[in-house]
Queue: 2 jobs
Job 1
Amino acid sequence: MDAWSEPLSRRRLLGAAAAAALGAGPLARAAAALPSALPHPARSGIDHVIVVMMENRSFDHLLGWLPGADAKQAGLTYTDAQGTPHRTFPLAPDFQGCTYADPDHSFDGARAEWDNGACDGWLRVNDLWSIGYYGRQDLPFFGKAAPAFTTCDRFFASFMGPTFPNRFYSLSAQTDRTSNLETRVDLPTIFDRLAAKRVPAAYYYGNFAFLLLYQRYQQISFPYSRFFAQCKTGKLPAFSYIDPNYTFADSGPASGNQGNDDHPHADIRAGEYFLSTIYNAVTHSPAWPRTLLVITFDEWGGFFDHVSPPAATADANPAYVQRGFRVPCLLISPFARRGHVAHGVYDHTSILKLVEWRWGLAPLSPRDAAAANLAGALDFSRRVLTAPRIAAPRLVVGASCPA
């Protein structure tokens, strides 16, 4: 069954969405007023931006081992709801966590974890899994890619809450809800801005097309096979947004064997393999010399992180300025500094800001108008075409969790 005609269940929504055009005048002026040492966009050397959006892992949880980063793993202690202290601990060789509950990353649960900036409430709303971590040796993709390219250690989820709002920020620079409410979304997106300028763009999906939420992007939505074919020929669109295979169940057997998105209880080794296939397709493409690949996560998933997220300076809804916790973000490109950690404050709207800068697009909301441009983490003074070989063991999906 075609993804555009299948029935909607969890993350599958009914209804049709109408595009909401946002007046661009004040936002465009605010964006243009921000200082920049960037080259002229058309002469930047970047003609293709690819975004891969994984699910539900924090920076410390996955990358707390990274040299040069503000990162912590071993040696932290958190108290549970009964006041008992527990130390952070390595999770491998458990790569799924089937014996644990999916950590809380709801609007209210996040605030308990944040604890007004103390970032010490993990075990007051979660079990011990939330303070576990993976080391470099456990991650065949991130373990090689993060030290090789540019990693952002101040890249935050845009919203202190769950998947849907954060994914809306990555597409629309705003959200119309605080939960994973299964109704259509009527917000403009970066795809609308690109289409208005006749800039080619495409969305690629596996087992579900998240853009069904918007109900208007069927013509630019394609299965993964098309992306890999376009990489091979070098005929990529200017902007590509890639989603993994989703994990729809939060518990039970299916929570382990549905996705490669890193959402609990997906096997993170399947996510590592998936990312390695994207990486190898991009770095071996004829388009590689002119490409930026951004790999990140929608939100932290309830896993510990020691850095308190700062609030954004503006938002379409002032009640939503509080960012969520840090998530991994890798910049892979000939223009990405090698072995570098970028310390600038970014979130998902910083990716939108980069796309808007490159193709002369109006901002979607006050949030992306005021966001730091992720292009600022790149080095446009030199182009390094070499890329390390990264081969993760093949694992398409994990095992079923015990009933």
Job 2
Amino acid sequence: MCTFKLHLNIDMDKQFKINVFRTGLAKFVTFEEKEWEILIQYLSFSTLKKKEHFVAEGKVCDYIAFIIQGAVRHYHVKDGQEITGYFCFENELVSAYKSFVKRVPSTNFIQALEETQLVLIAYTDLQKMLNHPVLGLKMERFGRLVAEYYICCFEDRLNAFVTQSPEERYTALEKTAKDIFQRVPQHYIANFLGITPVSLSRIRKRTLILKD
């Protein structure tokens, strides 16, 4: 009886993740039931422990992942210092995209900020889906739309550093990722905003005073 319950819980958990993944993909492309039944055969699942790396600098990234639950940060190391470039949370895709697509070593790290549950698509399986007579066209569309989405994200990040003050970047982050300050260490957020932790504390205090 206990074994049966265990298997039942595992199956329910897997089905929940698949359903969440399908909902997340729908903003890029939708799949008919026949297509979806084929696609899920190429999926795998993984859980990263806190501080565990999804990919490390110098390693080829073999997966694109969808975050079911959890958070990760993208960072580089320069002169021994970690430079946080981006955060990803639930219902977002994550990968070292150039490494994944071009099959070259990654120039950055991706690390779990908390226990993070992922749905994975391996590079080799993505190629099979792209060449599949049923899935091929939609997977090509999916790849194009994902690329467009992340190009826009990169442009927004670049524009923020060129046109916005640190306080404006903080305000924008507060609006788009409301719980980030409860989930991400302050020194990572400061680094992401291009300021020191002390400056971040000052900005937060000024913002709280203005709200009052």
